[in-house]
Amino acid sequence: MNDIVIIGAGIIGCSIARELSKYQLDITVIEKNLDVAEGTSKANSGIVHAGFTEKKNTLKGSLVAKSNKMFDILSDELEFSMVRNGALVLAYDDNDVRKIEQLKKNGEELGITGLSILDTEAVKRKQGNITKGVKAALYAETSAIVNPYDMTIAMAESAALNGVNFKFGANVVNIEKNGDIHTIYLENGEDIKSRFVINAAGLFGAEINNMMNEEKYNIRGVKGEYCLFDKIAGAAVKNTLFRVPEEKGKGVLVTPTTDGNLIVGPNSQKEQSVSTTREGIDEIIEKASKVIDELPVKRVITSFSGVRAKTESGDFIIEALKDNEQFINVIGIDSPGLTCAPAIAEYVSDMISKNLIMIKKHNFISKRHKMVRFAELSVEDKNKLIKDNPEYGRIVCKCELVTEGEIIDAIHRVPGAVTLDGVKRRTRAMMGGCQGMGCMLPICKIMSRELNVDISEINKNSAYSPAVGFREV
């Protein structure tokens, strides 16, 4: 039996799992998809927000500044990419200037440091290709960029290294409590028993809550579309660039990624689909073109959308049920949820410690080593690696210089990739200009061999998405 079951393997569930793995506890993470980071955690802006837009006396406002500071240590321990590139909120008229001054004041009241108002010349020195007419900007030096799914994978691998079990393809259909024990029933007929349950199910958090709680929640999905540009476009932007925030959210941003690309988005649509539309893409391109001059639209290599969970209150819901302190909701985690994930994990750990004896492990392994990135190595190190393991001498993805050795490593790590998207997120294979047209089939063949399954059983992402339409004979 488990001490704790965490439902959901996004950035929140995996961060909580990693934090709780510091203690002598039996922990299982269950996820209905086949990999971590299959929901909101795979498709968002990847911004570590400074937090100046958040309201006082909210969970968002109380957690964001503390959590932002945790990223320096975490990115070093877990070896996920983070760049403190700073953010600019651009003001184009006197009304905008008043708004950024208020944002600065609000941020300082929340304990956020490194905020300053820049004049036109200072803005241009920071980012030379800002559109004409900018009067001032709020500069937030603590703002950073991360790769959100890379961070989620790092948290999951660290948790697994410290004894946390992961169970994928595990769709929860009901939960019952008898005495101090919860029984979690899965769609496949299995059940899992646990003393504590943490609901970190993202967009489906309300459904999990409603299985146990008389107080019903409604979480609505809000879709945001993005365009991803190539690395030539990415080289032209240093800071994360915002216009003054809109009522619907922080608005369309323009930012480099940790991998060197450029990303613009998101818009805001009240739907749960992950489709992209011509109208939506036109909208974000138009808004991004008001931020930087001559947006290189011909360098777009793909578009995608993500769905974030919105509550009626607009704040996170992190609380135990009124009649069951062993069931904790961690739901409605929209922006700045990625930023707040480390602090949320500590917050939840503190909640559990009030009702469960938690003994720290003397052998907790804080360090997680990232995968080898062949493309980032020196010529000398490449030659040495190939000599030690010839699989690193076979380039499979020519756009991103990803080797067979990296793909094999991605499959056999814990938790490892069992889908094409899992390989893509761990290695960057299929993320270049051809978007997998040249390497998808060879990758499927490697996965078929390493997983010992027929190639027709290799899925793109979910259990019902075959990557290739034939069976090898």
CATH topology of the largest domain: D-Amino Acid Oxidase, Chain A, domain 2
The second-level CATH architecture of the largest domain is: 2-Layer Sandwich
> Which structural category fits the helices and strands?
alpha+beta
CATH superfamily of the largest domain: D-Amino Acid Oxidase, subunit A, domain 2
Number of helices: 13
Domain FAD dependent oxidoreductase: 3-351
Domain BFD-like [2Fe-2S]-binding: 395-447
Pfam families: DAO, Fer2_BFD
InterPro entries: BFD-like_2Fe2S-bd_dom, BFD-like_2Fe2S-bd_dom_sf, FAD-dep_OxRdtase, FAD/NAD-bd_sf, G3P_Oxidase/Oxidoreductase
Structure, described:
The chain is α+β, with helices and mostly antiparallel strands and 473 residues long. It folds into 3 domains: 152 residues, FAD/NAD(P)-binding domain, CATH 3.50.50; 156 residues, 2-Layer Sandwich (D-Amino Acid Oxidase, Chain A, domain 2); 84 residues, Arc Repressor Mutant, subunit A (Orthogonal Bundle). 31% of the residues lie in helices and 23% in strands. Strands 1, 2, 9, 10, 11, 12, 18 and 19 form an 8-stranded mixed beta sheet that branches. The mean pLDDT is 95.
